[in-house]
Amino acid sequence: MAQPVDVSLSVNGAPQRRAVEPRLLLSDFLRQDLGLTGTHVGCEHGVCGACTVLLNGEAVRSCLVFAVQADGAEVTTVEGLDSGGELHPLQEAFRDAHGLQCGFCTPGILMSMVPFLRDHPDPDEPTIREALSGNLCRCTGYQNIIQSVALAAERMRERPSPGGA
User: For the chain, how long is the longest CA-to-CA vector?
Assistant: First the structure.
């Protein structure tokens, strides 16, 4: 067994310092060490997108990243998406447009769409479909998910958030 490695990172704005096994996946670190179970683990191969989190503002598959690779980074999980108890506009849109069913894929989709909407504030449907192609949902035909992302984009253009996330 390899010697534990100290990692220091910020998770949802809170500093974290832990000694971890070098091969511990970021998804397992978030779920097991920090209790942030909103990061779901589906395929464990980076295909389904359920484990998507933001690493320094960019969407990554946390099942493909070692916790030691996040040393010094800012990680945002779905638990950190709201702002002071207020839902993120994307979360509101998913609620209002019925963009979820069982909810297993939803955290990963939300975390994938946050940087997408930051970079594409006025996306059309084909662009949204392309952006969603890395997230698998077995419950829906994606139509309400697409409508939710479009609704969020519209609302975010009308009332931009100060932090941009």
Answer: 53
| Nearest-angstrom CA–CA distance, 81 and 107 | 10
> What are the pLDDT digits (tens) for 95-146?
999 998 899 999 999 999 999 999 999 999 999 999 999 999 998 879 999 9
* Burial (CB count <10 Å: 0-12, 13-18, 19+), residue 133: exposed
**CA–CA gap between residue 136 and residue 151 (Å, rounded):** 20
Which residues have C-beta within 8 Å of that of residue 79, sequence separation ≥ 6?
12, 36, 38
Question: What is the three-class DSSP state of 68?
Answer: helix
